[in-house]
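Ticket #4471: complex job returned nothing on first submit. Input attached below:
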Amino acid sequence: MDHCRECNSSIAPSETACVSCGSAVRPKDDGGGVAGKLLLISRIAFILSAIMTVASLVFSATPPFWKCAVAMVVTTFVKSSAEQMVEKKKD
Ligand SMILES: [Zn+2]
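Support reply: We reran it on our side without changes. The output follows.
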């Protein structure tokens, strides 16, 4: 729970202004918060799945190619939606 900088009343995370005194609540960080973390994780997952997809064509010790390809498609989708979330936050 956040607290107002002006009157120290508690503020719900979804609220952008203090209900008691009306002062604007500054976001804790400009990195996009949850969306920013999701974007970072999805980018790492995408890179890993892309490496695995290429590796599955070369090495037999990796999961089947189709599984890697599906994982790469899913992480691509998650990554693009996370990017959209971060873009929306900037507006
Ligand atoms: Zn206040």
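Helices lie at 34-58, 65-90. Closing as resolved unless it happens again.
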